Q: What sequence folds into this?
């Protein structure tokens, strides 16, 4: 149900264009997942719009900068690997086996071209994701973009830390990590924000996806630093969208570089 809502929202957003890719395949999958789900204007919609723009911009920016490997962790029904496909770029999508099976069945039924995408099944709490990526062909000597969008609340803190550390092990110098964590809470809307957060936890918990970890932006920065990543503060992440770039930290939208070792 959460995937349906996100897919329905994304169908209403203006997405960043790319010089190539299969946006129609992305949209076909989103429509298939969303079904008859309806969306309306809300703070959730505003946040998802900003989050989508952030990750689109980081991905396209990385590809424009010459990145040829993208690892999407907890990919769910996201299809940026199709929307922003480019010749010579390898995408790796990682998620639970059941989600991957359902996604691949939908993509096959829709006739989407997925030749440039490697779909890996893994449980972040039990499996060595780094080994699976390397076995699948990830080149640890070349820079990669790692993406973790909308997943943090559903991972135990120790699992999240282990995942960030593990990805650093297979991240060549120059690699990037884009991640969404919790939104910064403002003093003037604490009560409203707290109420919405409680409602969200209750809603997803009732659907079998309990919130396990709550982080703010500063928590996210500190976590990444402990795991070998340095958060970046430059505006290049969002290309020409300086307004969103100035707000992205308060929204918990972080971009980090692989920290130098030794």
A:
């Amino acid at each position: 149900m959460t995937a349906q809502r996100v897919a329905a929202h994304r169908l209403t957003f203006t997405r960043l264009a790319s010089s190539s890719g299969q946006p129609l395949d992305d949209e076909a999958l989103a429509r298939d997942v969303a079904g008859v789900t309806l969306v309306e204007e809300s703070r959730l919609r505003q946040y998802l719009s900003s989050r989508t723009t952030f990750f689109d911009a980081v991905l396209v920016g990385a590809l424009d900068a010459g990145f040829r490997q993208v690892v999407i962790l907890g990919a769910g029904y996201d299809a940026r690997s199709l929307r922003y496909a480019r010749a010579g770029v390898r995408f790796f999508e990682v998620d639970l086996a059941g989600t991957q099976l359902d996604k691949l069945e939908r993509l096959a039924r829709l006739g989407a071209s997925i030749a440039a995408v490697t779909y890996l099944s893994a449980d972040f709490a039990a499996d060595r994701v780094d080994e699976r990526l390397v076995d699948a062909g990830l080149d640890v000597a070349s820079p990669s973009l790692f993406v973790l969008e909308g997943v943090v609340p559903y991972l135990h803190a120790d699992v999240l830390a282990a995942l960030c550390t593990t990805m650093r092990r297979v991240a060549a110098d120059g690699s990037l990590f884009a991640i969404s964590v919790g939104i910064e809470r403002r003093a003037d809307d604490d009560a409203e924000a707290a109420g919405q957060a409680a409602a969200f936890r209750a809603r997803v918990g009732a659907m079998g996806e309990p919130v396990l970890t709550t982080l703010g932006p500063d928590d996210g920065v500190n976590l990444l630093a402990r795991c070998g990543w340095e958060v970046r503060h430059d505006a290049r992440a969002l290309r020409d969208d300086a307004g969103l770039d100035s707000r992205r930290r308060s929204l918990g939208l972080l971009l980090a570089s692989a920290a130098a070792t030794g």
Remarks:
- The chain is about 45% helix and 15% strand.
- The domain at 2-258 is CATH 3.40.50.150 (Rossmann fold).
- The radius of gyration is 17 Å.
